[in-house]
# Entry
Amino acid sequence: MTRLGRIVFLAACALVFAFLLAPLLVIVPLSFNAEPYFTFTEGMLRLDADAFSLRWYRQVASDAVWRRALGNSLAIGAAATALATALGTLAAMGLAHPAMPGRRLAMGLLISPMVTPLVISAAGMFFFYSSLGLAQTHAGLILAHAALGTPFVVITVTATLSAFDRNLTRAAAGLGAGPWRTFRRVELPLIAPGVVSGALFAFAVSFDEVVVVLFMAGEAQRTIPRQMWAGVR
# Structure
């Protein structure tokens, strides 16, 4: 890629990021509004110090319900991310292997949670986990969120593995390294960017998910999005 082409590419990426993140960044100053209105007041536009306040942060920090919801979101998100990352990475490595039969069918099944409407997935998960006694439990919610996050890990790791040189694993095996050591010392360091990207996507999906929580969670498993939905109501 020429220097001019690289500059154009980076500029296009910057514009896309700005387009996607600008609406989110507007919310940050609104959270410091001293008035109970979700809009910029005249005082905020004048940068008046009295128009800004930490009252909403203090209210959340002092409310036991919000603290519990935050703890649930972080704990469930971390556990679901770890499970989705492990399963998604292993699945991607299997799908990337040339000897894997039915790779297209397996890939379609693995990424199906991404294309299936969440309401349908949530209803199916509720009936399935209810039959196992896992509805309204942290374990059931972790498994449900892991199922939603795994496709993102599979896609990112598969994309990384597409440029992976298989001769490296053959060389490691020829030098006496076992499968686990080859994975830990050769494959994992090279596919780490895809694994980390997939894990971030999986955590974001879990932390922001509300539809499955509405179906699956009880009062003890209420998360931040579920609490916000209850507040809006």
